[in-house]
């Protein structure tokens, strides 16, 4: 398989690092790390590479996710050397991007529900959550809907539901949030741009 | 950003003020250092010495909340020493306009102030017009009522002595910054400013930025490569979420939200469509009705018709003069008026000021819906510190969301680059993209209204909401195309100037917002983003071309920059009146006699020397020129220094108005304030660190990052620490009148006391990245337990950067 420019740079970096470390003597950790890096290199070379954009500050650095073709799992994420802004480099948070994947055991994977006065979360399915949320929204909206204000002007709004977020979802999702909340007649609509 | 990240390399002077770029935007800082390598001077003005200061040419400490005083002094220096760029100021700004005779400024207040309402009537903040409705101008700039002379008079009060006494910056340091920065007021030099939350988090936040905009206009730094005003924004898609206006006051594309007095579409469009009588002003917002009607069509499609005002009255209307920002929402929730709450990808129990009030407010909720990739303090408020879950009625849902690399879509960076990202893997377990969750929730609600009806049900039932694919999953392309805009009927568009007619078929994508129609023939979810696809359906956001024809790092074929792929805003101002670049070495744009070559220009018209067809460069301004006099602001057309809500002074050294007279005061029993109090004698500011992001709601769950920055700390200058007997690493308590935050003392030389009005004032600082939920073994909680509920008078961005605290040994 042909070595890409990015693959080549990473590979030479790994070898360079390994050589430097082994120069200090019999440090097995360094050798092991070097071997691991080479192993990862092999996997990266045959992996599916998918580009994404960093989810922290607004610089918009590019990243490349290496996905194991057999399992469909991401096993490595690093800076996109072809990206004109970050040119492959990343900050501490970007460099730790892999810890956002499902490899992080703290990720939420189930719908959680806490009943009124409950002391714990319970796992539920999507059908339960969607229909229950829809019912709550409709009941709250209908009960508290303001058709006309104190001056008698038509306002068609619901002040009893607040909607917050988010600046860390994609544009298309933002648009859906913006449109959904307006169609419901909400006015307490805000997100992190305010802070 | 008016410019973009790679463009920072083009600057000759970079003023970093209100930002710690090296630590919070490390990759942006790489471009700043690239300018430095080429010989640029980099200046850091900040209360604290940081890693940004360490890499700059020099650091100037200033007391939090005194930026307008500092920059007002710079305006004074520029005008008194004739350092402004005369050609630019005369031709491209409203310096020559004449201010109305009833406008006045006296002891910190502009004309029209209503102390009871804490609001201005802006009727006198006007510019005079001649008989044909064109603004009057004095091209000699000598008329005492000209904007130029009024500006000069206003800032003549900002003397070196006065500014030094307010800011705590030495006169030598003030002069050093003023001289170096003002030297960019010549055709072949570029100065830029990088700010972040350090400027927005004040009761005078918007005016901080406007003061710098005035400096940039005076020096001719706006619209040029290496210039502009550059917000280093702090969230990955905060530019996009702002563009799509998940904000109470605007609809997608910065269209105005409706208010109750605007009962009809016609009335609304009349109010928000600016009119200019000056034939040289492009007044681009005269197209406002096309953008707005196309937006309504994007919501309700064929249900939105001319007869029903395109569904105008289905939208909610705000009460005139009332605001609905985050702080207002929690205030209403605290009063028990808000009963349901959606909190998506956020941790408002940590991020909102006066967190104790916010958490108390949430106890009044009937229900709460969270959508996120990790749990956080907001979703767990019912068992937070001191809360008994058995007493909390709220029904809570926490919905698992896909992480960014587990979904496809676009994200906009601060430089307005809308970049496409691809899905790398499936989300774990039952997690779904937020877009899919939102579609499915709304679809369920829609079903209920179709079956049961309800108030204003048309708005919901008629909503076009078919954004799932054939397999029932989020079809992101469908939404992206809706945002871009589409022809709803076969349409012929005639360009009279060019003498062309172009035919578009029903269903075809609109190639740009210039094609949007007033009569309902187009639907467009957000006019700013229109043109992100070609008419043939090619997704420009996914472009990865690395060509750099100008050598300025514009990368026109990388992603899509709004508007219309323009990389630097107001770029026609980089050329003289004949369209020749002011700086031939950094040629952003040039008029060939027939067309503009370079970046995508701010409109196709010839430069303004062509009196017949030429247009002024600032096309989004009604008058076409940069606004030194800016009547749109809540607290006055010229920025004025006011003290923070909480500060060390009892009197504003510049006037009789201590704090921003137009800032709203919240009055609940939990909104306590302690200005110039002996109990809370130290100025406090808040910030982030490299390893955490915002509330830490994503990063505290990551072992590598948490190990680097495990818990809350307070940075205390060594002099103050010695006075208080506090040792480095000791566990101490920081308190404000609103609450307490236990944390670790970090005794440092990075904070030095300031001399303010002849008195020594200490300042401390804390990161805002912590909460109680995780890590489990820490005693940290939110720094915002300390901060007050108060915000900027225009934006309601909270004042996190200047408030008063005490520090004590435990």
Defining key terms:
A: 195 residues; three-stranded antiparallel sheet; three-stranded mixed sheet; 23% strand; disordered N terminus; B: 810 residues; alpha/beta; Rossmann fold; six-stranded mixed sheet; five-stranded parallel sheet; 31 strands; globular
Task: Give the secondary structure arrangement, pairings included.
The complex is a heterodimer of chains A (195) and B (810).
Chain A (H helix, E strand, L loop, with lengths): L4 H18 L5 H19 L1 E6 L8 E6 L6 E6 L12 H4 L15 E4 L7 E3 L1 H19 E4 L5 E11 L6 H13 L2 E5 L5
Parallel strand pairs in A: 7-8
Antiparallel strand pairs in A: 1-2, 2-3, 4-5, 6-7
Helix pairs in contact in A: 1-2
Chain B lengths: L12 E5 L3 H4 L1 H12 L3 E5 L5 H5 L2 E3 L6 H14 L5 H7 L12 E2 L2 E2 L2 E2 L4 E2 L26 H9 L4 H8 L3 H12 L8 E5 L1 H4 L4 H14 L10 E3 L6 H6 L6 E2 L3 E2 L8 H8 L15 H13 L25 H9 L5 E5 L3 H4 L3 H8 L4 E6 L22 E6 L8 E4 L4 E5 L12 H19 L4 H5 L14 H9 L1 E2 L3 E5 L4 E5 L17 E2 L36 E2 L27 E3 L4 E3 L83 E6 L15 H6 L4 E5 H7 L6 E6 L2 E10 L5 E3 L2 E3 L1 E5 L35 E7 L1
Parallel strand pairs in B: 1-2, 1-8, 2-3, 8-9, 12-13, 13-14, 24-30, 25-27
Antiparallel strand pairs in B: 4-5, 6-7, 10-11, 15-16, 16-21, 17-20, 18-19, 22-23, 24-31, 26-27, 26-31, 28-29
Question: How are the strands ordered across the major sheet of chain A?
Answer: 1-2-3
* Distance N to C terminus of chain B: 44 Å
> What is the alpha-carbon Rg of chain A in Å?
25 Å
Beta-strand content bin of chain A: 15-25%
The average pLDDT score of chain A comes to 87
Strand order of the largest sheet of chain B: 25-27-26-31-24-30
Question: Would you tell me the structural class of the helices and strands of chain B?
Answer: alpha/beta
Largest interface summary: A-B, 115 and 164 residues
- Determine the structural class of chain A based on helices, strands and strand pairing: alpha+beta
Number of strands of chain B: 31
């Amino acid at each position: 398989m042909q070595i890409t420019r990015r693959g080549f740079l990473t590979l030479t970096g790994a070898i360079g690092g390994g050589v430097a470390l082994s120069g200090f003597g019999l440090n097995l950790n360094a050798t092991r790390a070097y071997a691991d890096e080479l192993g990862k290199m092999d996997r990266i070379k045959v992996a599916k590479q998918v580009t994404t954009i960093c989810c922290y500050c607004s610089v918009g650095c590019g990243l490349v996710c290496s996905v194991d073709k057999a399992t469909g799992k991401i096993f490595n994420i690093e800076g996109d050397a072809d990206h004109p802004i970050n040119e492959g480099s990343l900050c501490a948070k970007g460099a730790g991007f892999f810890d956002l994947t499902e490899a992080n055991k703290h990720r939420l994977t189930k719908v959680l529900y806490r009943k009124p006065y409950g002391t714990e979360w319970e796992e539920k399915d999507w059908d339960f959550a969607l229909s229950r949320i829809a019912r709550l929204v409709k009941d709250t909206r209908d009960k508290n809907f303001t058709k006309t204000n104190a001056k008698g002007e038509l306002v068609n709004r619901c002040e009893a539901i607040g909607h917050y977020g988010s600046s860390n979802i994609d544009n298309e999702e933002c648009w859906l949030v913006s449109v959904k909340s307006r169609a419901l007649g909400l006015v307490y609509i805000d997100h992190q741009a305010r802070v | 950003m008016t410019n973009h990240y790679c463009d920072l390399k083009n600057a000759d002077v970079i003023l970093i003020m209100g930002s710690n770029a090296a630590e919070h935007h490390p990759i942006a800082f790489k471009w700043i250092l690239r300018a430095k390598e080429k010989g640029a001077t980099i200046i850091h003005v900040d209360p604290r010495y940081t890693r940004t200061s360490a890499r700059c040419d020099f650091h100037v400490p200033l007391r939090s909340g005194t930026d307008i005083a500092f920059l007002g002094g710079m305006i004074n220096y520029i005008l008194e020493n004739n350092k402004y760029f005369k050609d630019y100021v005369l031709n491209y700004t409203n310096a020559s306009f004449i201010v109305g005779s009833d406008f006045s400024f006296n002891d910190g207040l502009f004309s029209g102030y209503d102390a009871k309402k804490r609001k201005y009537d802006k009727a006198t903040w006007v510019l005079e017009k001649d008989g044909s409705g064109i603004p009057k101008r004095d091209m000699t700039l000598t008329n005492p009522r000209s904007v130029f002379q009024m500006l000069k008079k206003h800032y003549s009060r900002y003397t070196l002595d006065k500014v030094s006494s307010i800011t705590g910056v030495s006169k030598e340091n003030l002069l050093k910054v003023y001289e170096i920065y003002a030297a960019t007021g010549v055709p072949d030099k570029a100065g830029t400013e990088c700010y972040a939350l350090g400027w927005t988090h004040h009761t005078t936040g918007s005016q901080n930025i406007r003061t710098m905009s005035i400096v940039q206009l005076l020096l001719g730094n706006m619209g040029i490569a290496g210039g502009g005003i550059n917000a280093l924004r702090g969230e990955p898609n905060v530019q996009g979420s702002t563009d799509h206006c998940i904000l109470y006051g605007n609809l997608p594309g910065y269209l105005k939200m409706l208010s109750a007095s605007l009962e009809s579409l016609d009335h609304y469009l009349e109010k928000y469509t600016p009119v200019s009588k000056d034939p040289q002003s492009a007044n681009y917002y005269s197209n406002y009705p096309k953008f707005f009607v196309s937006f309504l069509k994007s919501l309700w499609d064929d249900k939105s018709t001319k007869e029903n005002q395109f569904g105008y009255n289905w939208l909610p209307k705000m009460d005139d003069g009332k605001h609905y920002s985050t702080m207002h929402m929690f205030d209403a929730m605290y009063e028990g008026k808000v009963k349901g709450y959606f909190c998506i990808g956020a941790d408002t129990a940590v991020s909102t000021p006066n967190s104790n009030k916010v958490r108390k407010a949430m106890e009044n909720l009937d229900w709460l819906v969270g959508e996120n990739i990790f749990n956080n303090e907001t979703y767990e408020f019912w068992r937070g510190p001191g809360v008994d879950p058995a007493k909390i009625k709220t029904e809570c849902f926490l919905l698992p969301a896909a992480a960014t690399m587990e979904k496809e879509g676009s994200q906009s960076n601060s430089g307005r680059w809308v970049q496409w990202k691809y899905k790398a893997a499936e989300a774990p377990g039952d997690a779904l993209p937020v877009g899919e969750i939102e579609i499915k929730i709304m679809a369920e609600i829609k079903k209920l209204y179709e079956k049961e009806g309800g108030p204003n049900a048309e708005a919901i039932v008629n909503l076009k909401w078919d954004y799932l694919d054939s397999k029932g999953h989020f079809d992101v392309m469908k939404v992206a195309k809706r945002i871009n805009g589409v022809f709803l009927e076969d349409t012929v568009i005639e360009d009279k100037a060019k003498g062309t007619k172009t035919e578009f078929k029903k269903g075809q994508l609109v190639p740009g917002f210039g094609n949007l129609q007033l009569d309902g023939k187009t639907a467009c979810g957000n006019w700013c983003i229109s043109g992100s696809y070609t008419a043939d359906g090619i997704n420009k956001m996914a472009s990865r071309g690395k060509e750099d024809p100008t050598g300025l790092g514009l990368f026109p074929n990388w992603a899509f920059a709004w508007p219309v792929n323009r990389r630097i805003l107001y770029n026609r101002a980089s050329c003289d009146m004949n369209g020749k670049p002011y700086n031939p070495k950094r040629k952003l744009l040039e008029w060939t006699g027939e067309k503009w070559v370079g970046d995508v220009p701010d409109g196709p018209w010839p430069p303004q020397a062509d009196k017949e067809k030429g247009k002024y460069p600032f096309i989004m301004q009604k008058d076409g020129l940069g606004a030194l006099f800016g009547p749109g602001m809540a607290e006055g057309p010229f920025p004025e220094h006011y003290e923070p809500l909480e500060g060390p002074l009892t009197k504003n050294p510049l006037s009789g108005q201590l704090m921003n007279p137009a800032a709203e005061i919240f009055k609940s029993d939990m909104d306590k304030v302690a200005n110039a109090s002996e109990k809370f004698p130290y100025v406090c500011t808040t910030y982030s660190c490299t390893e955490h992001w915002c509330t830490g709601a994503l990063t505290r769950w990551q072992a590598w990052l948490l190990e680097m920055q495990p818990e809350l700390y307070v940075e205390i200058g060594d002099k103050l620490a010695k006075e208080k007997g506090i040792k480095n690493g000791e566990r101490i308590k920081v308190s404000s009148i609103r609450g307490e935050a236990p944390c670790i003392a970090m005794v440092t030389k990075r904070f030095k006391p300031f001399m303010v009005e002849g008195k020594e004032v200490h300042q401390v600082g804390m990161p805002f990245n912590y909460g109680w939920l995780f890590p489990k073994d820490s005693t940290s909680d939110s720094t915002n337990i300390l901060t007050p509920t108060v915000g900027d008078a225009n934006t309601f961005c909270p004042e996190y950067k200047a408030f008063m605290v005490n520090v004590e040994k435990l």
